[in-house]
Design brief:
By secondary structure, the protein is mostly helical. The protein is built from 10 helices and no strands. The protein has helices spanning 2-11, 13-16, 32-41, 48-55, 63-75, 80-92, 96-103, 110-122, 126-138, 142-154.
Length: 155
């Protein structure tokens, strides 16, 4: 019965050889101390929020703090907040060239405008810096006013 077998082979066997699985699992969140250990051994197993929690345990600008945020942006290159934090770290180190690359991916936020103003100020473009800082201040960022004071002292 070759014709019948061919029919069975084409129409019945594919359905018999097919399996669907649904797997449900719960990922237990790490404590900050556990997350620090995981960060040392395999940081890609951490979510970006867990990395942010670890970073907050260190003083802003410390080498550990910077390392965590730079790792976060390397593992999540399209995350706007990770890019914003990386740009902030680089600007604090005076690296405006690399900071601009991260700012391009940071999304349109008042914080990005603030950092763009600071970057322009560091590059000596004081008029553009003033415009951007005013725009950030109007958006409700008090840090922009502080930076405007610094700008007016040097410009």
């Amino acid at each position: 019965y070759p014709e019948e077998f061919r029919f069975i082979l084409q129409h019945w066997f594919p359905g018999l050889r097919h399996s669907d699985y649904t797997i449900h699992y719960v990922v237990r969140p790490f404590t900050v101390e556990q997350a620090k250990q995981v960060f040392q051994s395999n940081p890609k197993n951490l979510s970006i929020e867990e990395m942010f929690r670890i970073a907050r345990t260190y003083p802003a600008g410390s080498p550990e703090y910077n390392k965590i945020f730079m790792t976060a942006v390397l593992l999540n290159p399209e995350h706007p907040v990770a890019n914003l934090n990386a740009a902030c770290i680089l600007l604090s180190q005076g690296d405006t060239k690399d900071a601009s690359l991260y700012l391009d991916k940071a999304g349109e936020t008042p914080e990005k405008t603030l950092l763009q103003g600071i970057m322009q100020m560091l590059n000596g473009n004081y008029t553009e810096a003033e415009n951007l800082l005013h725009k950030a201040e109007e958006a409700g960022l008090p840090q922009a006013g502080e930076n405007l004071k610094i700008l007016h002292e040097i410009y």
